[in-house]
Design brief:
208 residues; mainly alpha; single chain
């Protein structure tokens, strides 16, 4: 998907969320496209709203938006240099509730078309891989976890192979000696820790 050089305002996001809850999401999308950019697709408008929900740590809204959205909304690149999936993995890496919600969403949409991992998104994923998720020890472990749990449902095998080759060439164990300096560790988007909010019940499902 082509990167969109625009961002949804917070007021528009709140209106879209209210429209979703009222079963009028399609009507809002049509009106938004008419007012902002005729070339926007439904998926791009959904992705703009999803980015705003992620940035504002509105976990409940993330769940509601994904409940009505196709898989590709997670991979659309935005003007802040992130896609929704790379921002989620960067910002919520220690939030097991939202990661579990995303995992269940991906499993439910596993038959949808995969997209190519762009060069810019490869750079985003490098930041995600270089900081351990959960209690993983090595870059190799972290990459395999991300691929098996999230990325294989979104991106083509060919581009994931490229990602794998890139990281397998520089596998470094996580340790005090190998940990990057403070300035490098702060390279991620500087947002406050997310508050845990209720998650949309249709996405939560049962824990396994």
């Amino acid at each position: 998907m082509k990167e969109k050089n625009l961002e949804m305002s917070y007021a528009d996001f709140k209106q879209y969320y209210a429209a979703l809850q009222a079963g009028e999401g399609k009507q809002f999308i049509e009106a938004y496209r008419e007012r902002v950019d005729h070339s926007l697709t439904d998926e791009e408008v959904m992705s703009l709203a999803l980015m705003k929900a992620i940035q504002h740590q509105d976990v409940e809204a993330v769940g509601h938006i994904l409940n009505t959205a196709p898989l590709k909304v997670l991979t659309i690149m935005h003007c802040n240099g992130y896609s929704p999936i790379s921002l989620i993995l960067d910002l919520y890496r220690e939030n097991h509730d939202i990661l579990g919600m995303i995992e269940r969403y991906l499993l439910a949409h596993s038959d949808e078309e995969k997209v190519e991992l762009t060069e810019k998104e490869l750079s985003n994923m490098s930041m995600v891989v270089e900081v351990p998720m959960l209690d993983l020890i090595t870059l190799e472990d972290n990459l395999e976890y991300l691929k098996e749990t999230f990325l294989q449902y979104l991106y083509t095998p060919e581009t994931l192979e490229h990602l794998q080759v890139y990281y397998y060439s520089q596998t470094i164990p996580y340790s005090e000696e190998a940990t990057s300096g403070p300035e490098e560790q702060e390279a991620h988007l500087s947002l406050p820790e997310p508050n845990l909010l209720p998650i949309h019940p249709t996405l939560l499902g049962s824990s396994t």
